[in-house]
């Protein structure tokens, strides 16, 4: 009872206040035109530049075979012993292409995780991911190194475009969580000194595959 | 003068003389000032962007009742629960009830000013629940037993040496750790807590009414972890945080990042539409959104102050304010400091106790200049002063003094009475309260009439 009466009270106060409306502040600025710098390059290049500018590590792969080879090299160079992946289709593609180095059984024990993404946002160099992916809420943020496998067909230019694309894709069944991740986890809470890898991954890789 | 005003004046006097404090704040704000212009380059039409943002907030606030109800409709469809709280006490009661139901012993928290406003940590402590701040800046402040100094950069007033010393005292680490090492210590300590906690509490930067979701902006990943591992997620959010549509985030995320921290977008911007859905791998079983009024409808009620509810809490007006930079965040003794804090606090709390903050301003207008959603902050400070006088909160002496001033300055004959020296004596000695915290007035030796006549050859 108490809770519903609180709702009524708050709504009542709001309605009373709104009986005195105020006019729109800047009617001349209304519109749908973009307020951001337009794209001047191909989306792949735009993304790569913006993503690496924020300490992301970018690699382009002509096909999945090359992807598997590059992952192999990365695993070797970074001495990755346990890699975790919880997305069946990506795992399958990688195994078929010759990479099957998945020894971690959960994200808590891994030294790197591999996930896919919903879309890539070129203008800001961001990965748009959702809980509709079987990686869920944790895999891309809990692992110390996050490796994202994406395809060129997943590129969009701006954030709004990406969000509206997801709204259309899922219609009334939106995933419970959507996140726009841009580079490694960072903080500047101590004297504005940049430190990466606070709670999320300290390194983020994107392997962008043609297709 | 009220006790709060006395305390504010005393603390301001001390802080503004503290050179070391000023050095730390300038160091931080200079770094902020260096990156903001770079982030602004992402906009081709920055002014249009800011004006559209203000329009979007106007649209949301002018239909606030419908927006909140639409949110509730959408959000509950996915199994989320909405709790309405008129006051801080009601919000705390709701949290307590949920924690009891879930048998909560440890709770992880991501950064949220609303939870500061209702003093959630102190409340939970009394209930025997461990409430752990997981944002690094807030973690530092919690270790030190201090409130956040700034709404975006909670530990802005601490040097790296201060933090190293604090960690050494409280956590037993070596006293000479670097920011990298200190961050790693916090990471390791807090990882356990995310797994252990039964409940995760977050705030929300935006309420998105058309899809029934909240959005959280952060850089560290602690908010994502706070709403991933615990079985229950509670988001506590002020009712004014509404934006009408999902697409609006395409504008608000970059604006908030540009003005908050000088980034194009922050590292993580997360939309949460409810608890774990069927077929999903992980996520909380229950999600609650607590809508908090706590005086916000007072701001709504006055069409002039209403636009203060458009604030997106970027902190730009704090960084731009000459008063804030000199007296610091804690001197205000309010949850929200700086110009926006001075504007809203008297309405969220008591006008009589916090009206003095609206006088702690040179009315230079820099806050209005830098506000991403173009809130007329300095005009709202004036509005507060006006309201305070209107409701008879000015002291007797002050009212008499202004009455005398008004009579005098409206009357040419009285203005021509006496020379500059006499006027200086009148103001600086008789109305000595004026000069206690201000420079002395210095009247011209000749009156305006005398000078006018001289200039026109009548002298």
From TrEMBL, chain A:
Task: Tell me where in this chain the LUD domain is found.
Answer: 95-209
Pfam families (UniProt xref): LUD_dom
Name listed for the protein in its UniProt record: LUD domain-containing protein
Automatic annotation (TrEMBL), chain B:
Please give the name of this protein: Iron-sulfur cluster-binding protein
What are the alphabetically sorted keywords of the record? 4Fe-4S, Electron transport, Iron, Iron-sulfur, Metal-binding, Repeat, Transport
Instruction: Report the source organism.
Output: Segetibacter aerophilus
Question: What does the record give under GO molecular function?
Answer: 4 iron, 4 sulfur cluster binding; metal ion binding
InterPro entries attached to this UniProt entry: 4Fe4S_Fe-S-bd (IPR017896), 4Fe4S_Fe_S_CS (IPR017900), FTHF_cligase-like_sf (IPR024185), Helical_ferredxn (IPR009051), LUD_dom (IPR003741), LutB/LldF (IPR004452), NagB/RpiA_transferase-like (IPR037171)
Tell me which Gene Ontology terms the entry assigns under biological process. Answer: lactate metabolic process
Residues covered by the 4Fe-4S ferredoxin-type domain: 301-332
Among its keywords, does the record have Lipid metabolism? no
Asked whether the UniProt record includes Ubl conjugation among its keywords, one would answer no
Which NCBIfam families does the entry mention? LutB/LldF family L-lactate oxidation iron-sulfur protein
């Amino acid at each position: 009872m108490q809770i519903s009466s609180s709702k009524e009270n708050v709504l009542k106060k709001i309605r009373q206040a709104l009986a005195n409306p105020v006019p729109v502040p800047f009617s001349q600025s209304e519109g749908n035109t973009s307020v951001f710098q337009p794209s001047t390059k191909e989306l792949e290049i735009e993304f790569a530049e913006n993503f690496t500018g924020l300490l992301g590590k970018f690699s382009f792969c002509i096909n999945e075979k090359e992807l598997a080879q590059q992952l192999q090299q990365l695993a070797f160079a970074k001495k990755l012993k346990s890699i975790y992946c919880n997305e069946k289709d990506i795992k399958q593609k990688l195994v078929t292409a010759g990479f099957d180095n998945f020894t971690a059984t959960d994200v808590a024990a891994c030294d790197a995780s591999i996930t896919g993404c919903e879309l890539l946002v070129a203008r800001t160099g961001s990965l748009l991911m959702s809980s509709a992916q079987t990686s869920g809420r944790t895999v891309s943020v809990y692992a110390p190194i996050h490796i994202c496998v994406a395809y060129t067909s997943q590129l969009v230019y701006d954030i709004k475009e990406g969000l509206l694309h997801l709204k259309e894709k899922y219609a009334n069944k939106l995933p419970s969580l959507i996140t726009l991740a841009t580079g490694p986890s960072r903080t500047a809470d101590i004297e504005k000194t940049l430190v990466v890898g606070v709670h999320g991954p300290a390194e983020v890789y994107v392997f962008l595959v043609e297709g | 003068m009220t006790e709060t005003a006395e305390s504010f004046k005393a603390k301001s006097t001390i802080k503004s003389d503290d050179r070391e404090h000023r050095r730390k704040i300038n160091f931080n704000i200079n770094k902020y000032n260096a990156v903001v212009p770079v982030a602004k380059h992402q906009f081709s039409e920055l002014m249009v962007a800011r004006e559209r943002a203000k329009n979007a907030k106007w649209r949301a606030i002018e239909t606030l009742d419908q927006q909140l109800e639409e949110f509730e409709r959408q959000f509950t469809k996915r199994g989320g629960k909405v709790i309405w709280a008129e006051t801080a006490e009601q919000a705390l009661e709701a949290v307590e009830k949920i924690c009891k139901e879930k048998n909560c012993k440890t709770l992880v928290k991501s950064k949220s000013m609303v939870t500061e406003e209702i003093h959630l940590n102190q409340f939970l402590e009394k209930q025997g629940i461990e409430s752990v701040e997981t944002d690094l800046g807030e973690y530092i402040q919690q270790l030190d037993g201090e409130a956040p100094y700034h709404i975006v950069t909670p530990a802005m007033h601490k040097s790296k040496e201060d933090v190293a010393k604090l960690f050494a005292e409280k956590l037993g680490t070596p006293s000479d750790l670097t920011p990298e090492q200190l961050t790693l210590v916090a990471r390791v300590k807090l990882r356990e807590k995310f797994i252990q906690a039964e409940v995760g509490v977050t705030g929300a930067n935006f309420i998105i009414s058309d899809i029934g979701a909240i959005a959280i902006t952060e850089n560290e990943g602690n908010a994502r972890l706070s709403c991933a591992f615990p079985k229950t997620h509670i988001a506590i959010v002020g009712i004014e945080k509404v934006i009408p549509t999902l697409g609006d985030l395409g504008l608000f995320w970059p604006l908030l990042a540009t003005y908050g921290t000088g980034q194009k977008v922050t590292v993580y911007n997360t939309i949460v539409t409810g608890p774990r859905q069927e077929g999903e791998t992980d996520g909380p079983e229950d999600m609650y959104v607590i809508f908090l009024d706590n005086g916000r409808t007072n701001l709504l009620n006055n069409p002039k102050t209403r636009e203060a509810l458009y604030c997106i809490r970027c902190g730009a007006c704090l960084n731009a304010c000459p008063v804030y930079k000199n007296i610091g965040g804690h001197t205000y003794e309010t949850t929200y400091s700086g110009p926006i804090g001075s504007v809203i606090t008297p309405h969220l709390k008591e006008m009589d106790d916090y009206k003095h903050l609206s006088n702690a301003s040179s009315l230079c207008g820099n806050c209005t200049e830098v506000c991403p959603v173009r809130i007329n902050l300095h005009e709202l400070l004036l509005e507060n002063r006006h309201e305070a006088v209107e409701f008879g909160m000015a002291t007797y002496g002050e009212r008499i003094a202004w009455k005398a001033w008004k009579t005098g300055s409206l009357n040419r004959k009285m203005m021509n009475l006496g020379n500059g020296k006499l006027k200086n004596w009148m103001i600086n000695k008789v109305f000595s309260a004026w000069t206690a915290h201000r420079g002395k007035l210095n009247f011209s030796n000749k009156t305006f009439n005398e000078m006018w006549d001289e200039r026109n050859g009548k002298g």
